[in-house]
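Dear H.,

Thanks for agreeing to be a second pair of eyes. The structure we're designing against is below in token form, covering all 225 positions.
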């Protein structure tokens, strides 16, 4: 607007247009600016999307019917039905005019509600998947604890058997006059042997093997097991 006024003023000063033509152009520009301001004015207020989402949930749960839903949704979107004399005389014309004026807003509402429904289904799917993953994780943890406890029981049992044999059983062979501990290296190549308790082996004239009895029991376990 300001640029146009400057151009008109310059044309007037240079004598290209007369004062009457200048005044007429000023009136045209002023009227055009006012019309543009009216046309550019927004049709609707701010849409409360949270309230629309709640309304959609109420409809899905059957708390409100379709008529109530449509009425409240149009109010939330700032849509009003203008009832002038030409339209109130005929319900069909009134509804038709309302639809024409608000078709874009209705399309936006339908798209929004569709998006909300899609997001709701996605959220339900994610929640279901999370619940399944949580259940699988708890099951895996339970199995892990069970397997570990079984391992501890088996290890404890094996350790008890090993300690019993190391404390009470000795092995002899015909290759020497010693009695040996289980897994003594001197027995690696022996095919036949006899197992006694240490007192019985001593009674038969056997003595301790210097190899396997030359170290304490814990050191021997670390070396041979």
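And this is the sequence the design step returned. I haven't edited it by hand at all.
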């Amino acid at each position: 607007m300001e640029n146009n006024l400057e151009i008109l003023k310059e044309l007037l000063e240079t004598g290209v247009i007369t004062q009457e033509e200048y005044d007429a152009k000023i009136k045209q520009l002023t009227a055009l600016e006012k019309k543009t301001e009216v046309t550019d004015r927004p049709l609707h207020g701010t849409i409360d999307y949270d309230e629309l989402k709640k309304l959609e949930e109420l409809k899905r749960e059957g708390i409100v019917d379709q008529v109530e839903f449509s009425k409240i949704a149009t109010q939330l979107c700032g849509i009003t039905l203008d009832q002038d004399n030409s339209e109130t005389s005929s319900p069909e014309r009134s509804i038709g005019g309302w639809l024409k004026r608000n078709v874009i807003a209705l399309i936006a509402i339908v798209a929004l509600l569709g998006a909300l429904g899609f997001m709701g289904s996605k959220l339900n799917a994610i929640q279901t998947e999370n619940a399944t993953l949580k259940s699988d994780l708890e099951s895996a943890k339970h199995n892990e604890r069970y397997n570990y406890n079984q391992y501890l029981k088996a290890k404890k049992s094996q350790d008890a058997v090993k300690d019993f044999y190391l404390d009470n059983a000795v092995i002899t062979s015909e290759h020497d006059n010693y009695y040996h501990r289980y897994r003594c290296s001197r027995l690696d190549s022996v095919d036949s042997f006899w197992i006694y308790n240490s007192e019985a082996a001593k009674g038969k004239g056997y003595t301790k093997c210097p190899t396997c009895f030359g170290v304490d029991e814990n050191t021997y376990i670390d070396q041979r097991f």
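Two observations from my side: The CA atoms of residues 27 and 33 lie 10 Å apart. The first strand starts at residue 169 and ends at 172.

Warmly,
E.
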